[in-house]
Design brief:
single chain; alpha+beta; 5 helices; disordered C terminus
Length: 189
Amino acid sequence: MSSGRRYGVVVIRPARRDDLEPILHLVRELAVYEREPEAVVATPEDFAAALFGPVPLVHCHVAEDAAGQVVGMALWYVTFSTWLGRHGLWLEDLFVLPERRREGHGRALLTTLGRLCAERGYGRMEWWVLDWNTLALGFYRSIGARGMDDWTVQRLEGAALAALATGDPAPSGSVTGARGHDRTEGGGR
């Protein structure tokens, strides 16, 4: 076990380079849970560059069990609110292995990020949750989170993003599906 904050038998700590494989494993397990196992194309090298490159713009905390095994993660980055005039934290992914849920790992990860927000003066912490994920929604409501139902997510990716970057018209095949994914590009997070 490495240095991190203890929550009972749960240890939360910043990710290290030797966590790259466990992090990618958790990302793949999250994709399976979200019914999109084929969507993950990220490699350990991608995560190494993102988390440990010269100027990391994304961060990760991991949850370890008593044996030092990584059983959960919170991957996040800094945002900014023009209305608050302050930074915030966007939680990109929170995932705990299904067999290790209800042991306090998820709450400990969120508590760690909440403390980080308080220490840094961040004005908010935000994240997405799929509308069918009633277990997660219930958990988030139990800690005081509220849904932002009046906002919708918009996404540009693949051919549509490339067209915008070059000033070309959007490709005719970039119609979004029911879950908001570009049918011609595959979708995903």
